[in-house]
Design goal:
CATH topology: set domain protein methyltransferase, domain 2
Largest sheet: none
Strand content: under 5%
Radius of gyration: 18 Å
Order of helices and strands: HHHHHHHH
């Protein structure tokens, strides 16, 4: 469901792997009985009409059902915890011209990537409140 890398791709305005995230949340938030019933359907029938109308824009994410919001919120916290530093530390380093210039070009680029990823994750946390 999640693809080869086992990750979902989030952008500033929407989930870029929305089908995978949508199905994953749907399955993980089912009761055992609902899951058995869903699994017994012919080849996991397409809920195409439902899914066509369920884009995972930022607005739609903020309207998820409580169990899905909690699951996604906890997942974001776990992901943020996997980083070696927090968003503020990245921001401080970006704002400290002297320290920033001591970084190699590759370290500067990595800093920008990490900072952007963390900002998106923090934005997602706000949407899930």
């Amino acid at each position: 469901m999640v693809g080869e890398e086992g990750a979902f791709v989030l952008g500033w305005d929407e989930v870029l792997t929305e089908e995978e995230l949508s199905v994953t949340l749907k399955v993980l938030c089912m009761s055992e009985e609902e899951f058995k019933e869903y699994k017994e359907q012919d080849g996991w029938e397409d809920d195409s009409e439902e899914e066509e109308n369920s884009s995972l824009s930022n607005e739609a994410l903020s309207r998820l059902k409580a169990p899905c919001k909690k699951l996604l919120h906890d997942s974001v916290l776990l992901t943020l915890g996997s980083y070696g530093s927090d968003l503020k530390a990245e921001q401080d380093l970006l704002n400290n011209k002297e320290a920033y210039e001591k970084l190699s070009r590759r370290e500067q680029q990595a800093l920008h990537v990490r900072y952007g990823q963390k900002r998106i994750l923090h934005q997602l946390l706000e949407l899930l409140r």
